[in-house]
Amino acid sequence: MYDMKHLRRLKTIEANAPDAMKTFSAFDRAALADGAIPVKYKELMACAVAFTTQCPYCIEIHSRRAREAGASDREMAEVVTVAAALRAGAAIMHGTHAFPDLP
Predict the structure, then answer these.
(1) Does residue 82 lie within any of the structural domains?
(2) Which of 9, 48, 53, 68 is within CB 3.0–4.6 Å of 83 for a Cys-Cys bond?
(3) pLDDT in tens, 49-59
(4) What's the CA gap between 22 and 15, in Å, rounded?
(5) How far apart are CA 29 and CA 99, in angstroms?
(6) Cα separation of 53 and 2, whole Å?
(7) pTM, two decimal places
(8) How many domains, the chain?
(9) CB within 8 A of 75, min separation 6: which ones?
């Protein structure tokens, strides 16, 4: 189902929704550009989100970009554990909804 060659199909979306896609692309570039937070850290944040949402396209793209920006194996490993902690934490916190209120 997931294959990086499917990203070529973005051209179909762009052809049929050009204004929205131009706006999205501009926003995406601006959000990930160097600023108060350096690119490396923005890409590591993007990796954490991608690991949490389990998007293989985002994992591949943003982990490559993080590496290009200088991210190390140790930094990437810590990002993986942060994403895992947040995902597990969300399950624990949502589990509280399965219990009645205390008196």
Answers:
(1) yes
(2) 48
(3) 999 999 999 99
(4) 11
(5) 44
(6) 14
(7) 0.89
(8) 1
(9) 44, 66
3 state SS for 23-74? HHHHHHHHHHCCCCCCHHHHHHHHHHHHHHHCCHHHHHHHHHHHHHCCCCHH
CA 72 from chain centre, in angstroms, equals 18
Query: For the domain that residue 85 is a member of, what is the CATH number?
Result: 1.20.1290.10
Q: What is the pLDDT of residues 59-74, one digit of tens each?
A: 999 999 999 999 999 9
Contacts of 69 (CB under 8 A, 6+ apart): 38, 39, 40, 43
Listed residue (101, 24, 40) closest to 75, CA to CA: 40
- Domain range for 77 is 36-95
